[in-house]
């Protein structure tokens, strides 16, 4: 049996997410598809760079 989790999102986020839901796709399909588009390492590097106040592209050149 598949277990599901509830993830609270703002109504605006839900509206945006719904725009990506096509055909018989589930929200799980949409979220996984979006996550598959950006490697985890790239996502983390971008957020670390933002926390340090630099752009990820600038940081990679050091």
Fill in the keyword field for this structure.
elongated, 0% strand, 62 residues, mainly alpha, 61% helix
Overview of the structural elements:
The chain is mostly helical and 62 residues long. The chain has a domain at 24-60. The chain is 61% helix and 0% strand. It is built from four helices and no strands. The radius of gyration is 16 Å and the shape is elongated. The mean pLDDT is 90.
Can you give me a brief rundown of this structure?
With 62 residues, this protein is an all-alpha fold. The chain contains 4 helices and no strands.
Work out the strand percent.
under 5%
Task: Assign the structural class, choosing from mainly alpha, mainly beta, alpha/beta, alpha+beta, or little secondary structure.
Answer: mainly alpha
* Main sheet characteristics: none
Number of strands: 0
For the termini, the CA-CA separation is 49 Å
In DSSP terms, counting alpha (H) and pi (I) runs of 4 or more, how many helices? Answer: 4
Low-confidence stretches: none
Overall mean pLDDT: 90
Taken in chain order, the helices and strands follow as HHHH
Shape: elongated
Radius of gyration: 16 Å
Range of helix content: 55-70%
């Amino acid at each position: 049996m598949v277990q599901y989790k509830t993830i609270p999102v703002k109504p605006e986020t839900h509206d945006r997410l719904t725009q990506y839901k096509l055909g018989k796709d589930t929200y799980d399909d949409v979220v996984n598809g979006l996550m598959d588009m950006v490697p985890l390492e790239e996502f983390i590097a971008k957020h670390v760079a933002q926390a340090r106040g630099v752009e990820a592209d600038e940081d990679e050149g050091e």
